[in-house]
Amino acid sequence: MTLGLIGFDATMTAAIKDAYQGELLTLEDLGFDIASTDKGMINLNKAYPIAPMHELTVDQLRLLKADFDHYSTRRRLMLNHEEQHVLFLRILVASVDYLGRVNALLMSNLPHQGTDAILSRLAQIKSVPVRYFTPSIFDGYAYLSKSCNNFYKELETNANPPQISIDNTAKQSVTYMDPVSGVPPIKRLGSKLNTFREFRRYSKDYAARLFLRPLLSRHFHRAYRRMPWQKDFHPDHSADHLNIYFPLHLQPELTTSFMGQAYSDQCLAISTLVAVLKSQDRAFTIYVKENPKQSFDQRQFLHLLQSDEVIMIDRTVPSNRLIEECDIVATITGTAGWEAVKSGKPALIFGTTWYENAPGVIVFDDLLTQKALISKAPVDSALVNQWFSAHLSALHAGQFDPDQKSFAPFFDRSVDTVVGILDKMNEGRP
User: Fold this and answer.
1) How far apart are alpha carbons 64 and 363 in whole angstroms?
2) How many degrees, rounded to 5, is the angle at CA 175 between CA 396 and CA 168?
3) Is the CB of residue 349 less than 8 Å from the CB of residue 337?
4) Do 187 and 194 contact (CB within 8 A), yes or no?
5) Cα-flanking dihedrals φ and ψ of residue 267, to 5°?
6) Mean pLDDT of 93-103
7) Which of 20, 175, 287, 399 is most buried as measured by Cβ atoms within 10 A of its Cβ?
8) What is the spatial distance between Cα 386 and Cα 341, in angstroms, rounded to a whole number?
């Protein structure tokens, strides 16, 4: 049985291959450069690939192209139409070839890029079993599921769950939200010049756009930052008024583009929420705060200011204060929803997330179906703690993102976890 390994960095892949006794195959083993495709680099002088029509139907090709377009990176979106199409076909042909050589697949995360999305879709089409990891907010632990679309509904349990305790407050220490240390100007300039030279080999036009767009983005972002966001936060605490805190996700990101499902557009989620509350004749205010790490292209949120019920709060206002003083937290899939329920406040979620079954969580689509009113009744923290204790069995030891600060300390046990999962897959056990 040949197992496929996708999305793990080169160091971990090498360690897994050394530790695993069975046969492993990566796309890199077939000479396919995933890093180059994620950057959107394409050499048009190479032979034009042909779509594998004997393998796929036209409808399947359309779905695959939609996946590719949806998960395209910012760099890839700067390619012209022909370059985009050639890149899609290169990824598709390599993916069909790869899945024809493996019996099952293990991915380090849910689809982040076009390559991952195409592989996931193709695996479904060809009935190739897949296991997906995705990181948790708890350092050194990840979730594992046999489903991509129903990830948190088909989690695989761990026979040796971790022992993690939570505090019933609105604060949660999350490593990925830590400030990122700045890169020295000389090193940053050198990196840009190297990237420019690299891209000129593929497309001269692309290399020029690579430099022009960030300049324009910075100009608009500075103007955006100077807008008069509300710095003071004084919610209306009258009995019939609903105060809702809506923290925005970093975009584009997995938390919205994939787990957001129908509400990957945060503006759509907020606009729909406004319409529902108005139809119920509720008095409400939605306090919207941008993600602290968002650094450009924020103009997509400006139209929210056209609603009197929506207030853009300055990002310097602490999130835990907003959670504590608002009646409910609304989010696509964010950690703020978990911070709310564990501190006794209800959370309204629009997407799919790991705490979606916790006490006090309201799923927006369920709310629409039931035509129920949003309750601001307090959540029983004891029930949340009880739920969390049971939930720990879904966590597996592992940290697979090398950009995370906690990656190195958990390297060895992450490799052990992957090898253990591969052994189970090879034995045909779920």
Assistant:
1) 29
2) 80
3) yes
4) no
5) -65, -40
6) 95
7) 399
8) 13
- 390-399 pLDDT, tens digit per residue, is 999 999 999 9
**Closest-CA residue to 309 (of 357, 374, 244, 369):** 244
Q: What is the mean pLDDT of residues 242-248?
A: 94
Residues 169 and 157 sit within 8 Å (Cβ to Cβ): no
In this structure, of 8-22, 182-196, 392-406, the range with the lowest mean pLDDT score is 182-196
Residue 283: which region, alpha, beta or left (left: phi > 0; alpha: psi -120 to 50)? beta
Tokens 């602490």 locate to: 318
The residue type at 266: Q
Calculate the dihedral angle through the C-alpha atoms of 251, 257, 259, 264, rounding to the nearest 10 degrees. 90
Angle between helices 58-70 and 114-125 (to 10 degrees): 150
| Coil vs helix vs strand at 115 | helix
Q: Which residues contact 181 (CB under 8 A, 6 or more apart)?
A: none
Residue 310 structure tokens: 């929506």
CA 263, chain centre distance (Å):
13
pLDDT in tens, 255-313: 887 788 889 888 889 999 999 999 999 999 999 988 877 665 544 565 666 678 998 88
DSSP string computed for 144-159: EES-STTGGGSBPP-S
Instruction: Write down the pLDDT at residue 124.
Output: 94
| CA–CA distance, 110 with 333 (Å, rounded to integer) | 14
Both structure tokens of 38: 């994620």
Structure tokens at 277: 């509350």
The yes-or-no verdict on residue 3 having pLDDT over 90 is yes
CA angle in degrees (0–180, nearest 5) for 157-67-203:
125
pTM for the structure as a whole:
0.84
The size of the chain, in residues, is: 430
Residue 353: phi, psi to the nearest 5? -150, 165
Backbone torsion region of residue 6, taken as left when φ is above 0, otherwise alpha when ψ lies between -120 and 50, otherwise beta: beta
Return the H-helix or E-strand segment holding 413.
helix 411-426
Q: Residue 323 has which token pair?
A: 């959670």
Q: At what angle do helices 381-391 and 335-342 cross, to 10 degrees?
A: 130
CB 112 within 8 A of CB 70: no
According to the 3-state scheme, what is the secondary structure of 302-365?
Answer: HHHHHCCCEEEECCCCCHHHHHHHCCEEEECCCHHHHHHHHCCCCEEECCCCCCCCCCCEEEHH
Which tokens hold the place of 84? 């985009």
Read off the pLDDT of residues 136-187 as tens digits, 9 standing for 90 and up.
999 899 999 999 988 999 999 998 999 998 888 877 655 555 554 555 777 7
